[in-house]
Amino acid sequence: MSVLIKASSTRAQAFRRGFWKGLGAPAMLFGTFDIEQAEAKDFEPKPLPKRKRGTVRDDWKAVGREISKAAEIG
User: Fold this and answer.
1) Backbone angles phi, psi at 27, to 5 degrees
2) What is the DSSP letter of 64?
3) Kind and range of the H or E run holding 13
4) Residue-wise DSSP of 23-63
5) How far does Cα 61 stand from its chain's mean position?
6) How many CA within 13 A on the CB side of residue 40?
7) pLDDT on residue 2
8) Cα 14 from Cα 9, distance rounded (Å)
């Protein structure tokens, strides 16, 4: 379950909570929020993993070939 959903609440409690959140949502459009400036951090790029045969990329290539064949036949 999502963190946004409280599983222990009853149906009535969930309805009331959703109702009030729904009423407050349009006000958020006009709100101003001051966010503190985060510290700048240096990030080191991680090396890309070596690709192995049978990766997701190869799977999608195979799917593309099958779709192309089906389009040519149909």
Assistant:
1) -65, -25
2) H
3) helix 11-28
4) HHHHHHTT-----PPPPP---PPPPPPPP-TT-HHHHHHHH
5) 24
6) 0
7) 44
8) 6
What number of other Cβ atoms are within 10 A of residue 40's Cβ? Answer: 5
Successive 10-residue mean pLDDT values, the chain, 74 residues: 60 85 80 76 84 78 91 77
Tell me how far the alpha carbon of residue 64 is from its chain's centroid.
25
What b/e sequence results for 51-65 when a residue is b if at least 16 CB atoms lie within 10 Å of its CB, and e otherwise?
A: eeeeeeeeeeeeeee
If one counts every other C-beta atom within 10 angstroms of the C-beta of residue 14, the result is 13
**Radius of gyration of the CA atoms of the chain, in A:** 25
- CB-based contact 31:24 (threshold 8 Å): no
Measured in whole angstroms, the distance separating CA 20 from the mean position of its chain's CA atoms is 25
